[in-house]
Amino acid sequence: MGKIHQVATTAELPVGAKMVINIGKRSIGLFNVNGAYHALPNLCPHQIGPLCEGNVSGTTDARAETGWKVEWVNEGEIVACPWHGIEYHIPTGRCLPFPEISIRTYKVWAEDDAVFIEL
Amino acid sequence: MSSKRQSLEEMLVVDVDVHLHEKPAEMAAYIDKPYRQSMEIAGSFQDDRYLALPGFAPGDTFYFPMYPGGGEAGRAVWGIQQMRDELDKIAIDIGILFPDHLLKLAVHPVKDYAAAIARAYNAWMVDRWCSREKGILGLIIAANQDPEDAAREIEKYAKEPTVVGVYLPTAGVQPLWGDRKYDPIFQAAQDADLPVLLHSVTVVHPVFPSQIQEYETALGQHSVSHLFNMMANMVRMVETGVPVRYPDLRVAFTEAGISWVPGMLHRLDKEYLELRRDIPMFKQRPSKHLEKYYYATQPIGEPENPQDIVDLIRLYNGFKTTMFASDWPHHDFDHPRAVYKLPWPSEEVRRGVMGENALEFFKIDRNGYRLNLKTKGGE
To answer: I need a labelling partner for B15 at 20 to 30 A (CA). Which of B100, B179, B323, B356 fits?
Structure first.
């Protein structure tokens, strides 16, 4: 069991919003993806860029089942590092271009109108 | 197989790039009217112009060397027995045929004409050149101008015992290989279980990347012509996801050496890191998807330290996907010993590069029998 911190109010983090907070030496990105709270280190392992300051959007996919037609998927679930555009899936920390890489995620939740994180 | 070093003569050597010389007078019997007369006219010329069919003399702006004393070797192979005899002299067991004149077919502007030439070449080559007994196997030409017709040709020759692949004319091709226009060719080749091989030539043509009039020497032109065409076409094939959309299609890049491969793959991987969204059919970095593609050695780089070549091949995991090619009888051919003698990490790798990797690529056995035909004549 890690240490629990109150990091925001729910009003500060509406659906689609994100914020970067500092706890001690750690910089962490908080995200509200379609009503679910997520948190990732604000650190892209590629060249140690400030990942969570990047844009949040969906992304592209293409599959054989749909004739390789490009689709727009995972709207609101993807953050792209502002340095080089490397994409991460916010709920899982999965790195899209490098499937062998995932970054850690933190446990985040809301109680009443406060948002908590466990480190 | 033992780890003892076989001599070059003992070792199976498959040469994935030798060039026959077309005889228009012979090919005339194989081409449809109204083009037959054109072929006959070309066949009547005393001098050997570059398959000088009316309307077909592309790339005559290529600079021949300005100074006498080198680079003038105008060798040509006019018949199968000459080819067999000459390959014997350089220790090659199995040779895979590319054309000479028709290396420039891609720039021909007339769809029907280009397709007719390709059909004529294919039929003539199978009749007059291909022989498993002589270790001479053929590649049919896919006319880029008419992908549907090229796909029909691939289907037609899919079960031909002496046809082992499809040559994609690459010099001056527009659009580049990989364009969706060519999907019927890739689909047909995958369905026929025949590999495709990109092969370029020096041609000056106003399409990317063949606008090489910039260069004032044959050295300048020839340094970039094959190389840039391989790179440009590989990138186009990546853009449209060919390695993903045709997962079982075997592809080889020829006559550009191998030194460019790791650099190109690093470049594609670096772009992918930032621009993955452009090619979402890829589920991992392009170099991973491209590991299954093959590369022909000629013209092999000859650095001061031969180990450099082995290291470059290691960088693209190419010990099983690199295949010896001589380019016989062209001026810049490599004798097999130039590749055989390299400091390979094992005898298995040496045998692989000199011949056994090509057997895998073409799905043939050591006697030239196709292994992907149900009726097999051999052992």
So the answer is: B179
Coil vs helix vs strand at B46: coil
Q: What is the pLDDT of residue B378?
A: 46
In chain B, where the domains are located = 14-63+81-362
Domain range list for chain A:
4-118
Inter-chain touch B241–A61, beta carbons under 8 Å? no
Please tell me if residue A62 touches chain B, with a CB cutoff of 8 Å.
yes
Min Cα separation A109/chain B (Å): 31
Q: Residue B21 above 50 pLDDT? A: yes
Q: What class is the B14-63+81-362 domain?
A: alpha beta
Chain B residues with CB inside 8 Å of A62's CB?
241, 280-281
CB-based contacts of B210: which residues, under 8 Å, 6+ apart? B107, B171, B172, B203, B204, B225, B229
Q: How deeply is B296 buried, as exposed, middle or buried, from its count of CB atoms within 10 A (0-12, 13-18, 19+)?
A: buried
Q: What is the pLDDT of residues B34-82, one digit of tens each?
A: 889 888 888 887 766 666 666 666 655 556 667 776 655 678 999 999 9
Q: Which of B281, B283, B284 sits opposite A68 (nearest CB)?
A: B281
Structure tokens at B114: 């280009």
Residue among B39, B169, B92 nearest B328 (CA) = B92
CATH superfamily of domain region A4-118: Rieske [2Fe-2S] iron-sulphur domain (2.102.10.10)
Candidate from B277, B284, B285 with C-beta closest to A60: B277
Residue of chain B whose Cα is closest to the Cα of A71: B280
Look at residue B34 in the predicted model and tell me its pLDDT. Answer: 87
Per-residue pLDDT tens over the stretch B105-162: 999 889 999 999 999 999 999 999 999 999 999 999 999 999 999 999 999 999 999 9
Query: Which residues in A lie closer than 8 A to residue B281 (C-beta atoms)?
Result: 62-63, 68
Q: Which residues of A touch B244 (CB under 8 A)?
A: 68
DSSP run (H or E) holding B228: helix B218-239
Comparing C-alpha atoms, which of B84, B194, B189, B196 is closest to residue B129? B84
Picking from B248, B271, B277 by the largest number of A CB atoms within 10 A of its own CB, the best residue to mutate is: B277
Over residues B196-212, the pLDDT tens digits come to: 999 999 888 899 999 99
pLDDT, tens digit, 9 for 90 and up, residues B220-230: 999 999 999 99
